[in-house]
Amino acid sequence: MLPAVCRFLFVTTLGLITGLSSAAPVDKVYQQHCASCHAPTRLGGMGPALLPGNLKRLKTGEAAEVIRDGRAASQMPAFGDQLSEKQIEGLVDYIYTPLPSPPQWGQEEIEQSHQIHHQQAKLGNKPVFDADPLNLFIVVELGDHHATVLNGDTFEPIHRFETRFALHGGPKYSPSGRFVYFASRDGWISKFDMYNLKTVAEIRAGINTRNLAVSADGRYVMVGNYLPHTLVLLDAKDLTPIRIFDVEDKQGRSSRVSAVYTAPPRGSFIAALKDVKEVWEISYLDEPEPVATGYMHDYRYEEGYMDRGPFPLRRIVLDDYLDDFFFDQDYKHLIGAARNANNGQVVNLIVGRKIADIDLQGLPHLGSGISWEYEGRTVLATPNLKKGEVSIIDMQNWETIKRIKTHGPGFFMRSHKNSPYAWVDVFFGPNKDEVHIIDKATLEIVRTLKPEPGKTAAHVEFDRDGRHALLSIWDEEGYVIVYDAKTLEEVKRLPMNKPSGKYNVYNKTRYTEGTSH
Ligand code: DHE
C-alpha cells in the first residue's frame, strides 16, 4: 500500500497523463478510453457491445482483468497503467448496468451496418483446396475469436480465420454446404464462402442476438434477437434485410426470442419466445401448401391466428414460455421446456397445440437433445444443465423411461446413426473434465473418458460416416481430440484456442439423426 502522500502524487500524475482525475465520473472515463471502439452508446463498434446481456459469458472479475491487461490476439489494449483500480471497478459497474432506455436497432441501423467484402460473382465456384467439401468441419475457437476449417478425412486444418467477437450457437450451412453463416452475441451475421475461404458479407441484425437459421431452400436467413425484440429476415445471397418482425403478442406485449430454427419439411422458420406464451411459425414457401404441410387451416385466418401475404406468421398459443426446444426428425412435434418449469411440453405442429406434458425436472437442455431407435421405438435423450442426469423419453407416449445418472450436469449430447454410442459431457462441477459414453442399446454408461484432467471436455461432433468423434478441450491451451468412434481410442490431437462447437458439413446439411439442427 502506498503512503497517502505518494498515493496523492500517483493519482494526480495519472490524472495529468490521462487528462482525467480518478474522481472523473465514470461516463467521462468511458467516453475517453472506451467509446472509440465500443461506441459512445455502448452498442459496440470495432469492439463488442458493452451491455449486461452481451457480457453474460464474462464474469465481472474477468472484465476488470481485460480492462487492466488487455485481451490477447485482439485489438483490446491494456489500460492498467492509465486507470486506477477504482476507475476500472467503476467501468466494470458501468458496463454491467443496463442502459436507461432500450437501444434502437431498426431497419436503418441494420442497413447501415451492411458490408459486402467480396462480390460473389468475382469468386470461383470450386474449392481452392483439395478435400471432400462435404466432410469439412468448422471449429469455433472462442479463446481468440477465430474459426478453423478442418479436413474431415485427414483431420488437418485447411484455414484459420478471425470471426466476430463471441460467436454463439451453431453456424448454419447453406444446403450445398458451400456457405456458412455465423451469429455473434453482438448481432453480427457473417457469411463465409467455404470454397474460397473468404468472409463475403456481414450485417448487424441486432444488439444481442440468440441465433440464426437458414431456410432449407437456402434462400433466407432468419435471426432471433434478445435485443431488440425482433426476428430479422435476410436475403441469404448477400444478407440484405428483407423484413423485420416485431415480436409481440396480440396485446402488444413484446418478447425476446429464445431461438429460431428451420423446419425443412414444413418450409418454415419456427421461433420459441421467452416472454410471451406463443411459438411462432413463419413460412418461407412462395405458396404455402396447406395440405402437404398441414401448416394452414382456413379457420385460422378467420380467427386471426395467422397473417396472409409473404412470410405469413402463424401463432401457436401455449400455456407456458419456451426457453429451449427440440424437434422430432420429421418436424411434426416440437418438444420444449421453460427454464423455471418442472416439465416439458410437446406441441404438435400440425394441429398447432400442446398435446402432452413430459416429466422433466431441473433444467433440461433440449437444444442439445438427440434421438435414436431403442427397442423398436424412437427415444429422445436430453442432458440437464442443473442435474447430473440424462433423461430418456419414449417419443410415442412421451413418458420418461429412464434417468441415467451422470457425474454432473451436462451441456451437449451427440451421436451418429452409424455409432452404437451417445456421448454426453459433464460440463459443470468438479467432473467437468469427464465425458460419458452411453450404449444406445442398453441405456447404460459404458465408459467415462477423462482426456485432460482439470480441463473442461465438452461438445462432440462426428465425421460424415460416423467413424470418428471429435471432442473439445475447452481451454486456451486446448485441443480438438479425434477419437475412433468404435474403439474409443484417441487418434489425434489438434491444438486449438478454447475450441467450442464443431460442425460437420454433411451431418448438418442432411439434418442427420444424432446431431443438432
Ligand atoms: Fe448456448 C447453442 C442457448 C450458454 C455454447 N445455445 C445454443 C442454442 C441455444 C443456446 C438456444 C441453439 C442455437 C443454434 O445453434 O442455432 N446457451 C444458450 C443459453 O440460453 C445459455 C444457457 C445462456 C446464455 O448465455 O445464452 C447458453 N452456450 C452457452 C455457453 O455458456 C456456451 C457453453 C459457451 C458460449 O459460447 O457462450 C454455449 N451454445 C453453445 C454452443 C452451441 C450453442 C457451442 C451450438 C451447439 C451445437 O452443436 O449446435
Automatic annotation (TrEMBL):
**CDD domains assigned:** 8prop_heme-binding_NirN
> Which InterPro entries did the record assign?
Cyt_c-like_dom (IPR009056), Cyt_c-like_dom_sf (IPR036909), Cyt_C_IC (IPR008168), Cyt_cd1_C_sf (IPR003143), Haem_d1_sf (IPR011048), Host-pathogen_enzymatic-act (IPR051200)
Among its keywords, does the record have Magnesium?
A: no
Keywords, comma-separated and alphabetical: Electron transport, Heme, Iron, Metal-binding, Signal, Transport
Highest taxon of source: Bacteria
Q: Which residues form the Cytochrome c domain?
A: 21-99
What is the designated name of this protein? Answer: Cbb3-type cytochrome c oxidase subunit III
Highest classification ranks of the organism = Bacteria, Pseudomonadati, Pseudomonadota, Gammaproteobacteria, Thiohalomonadales
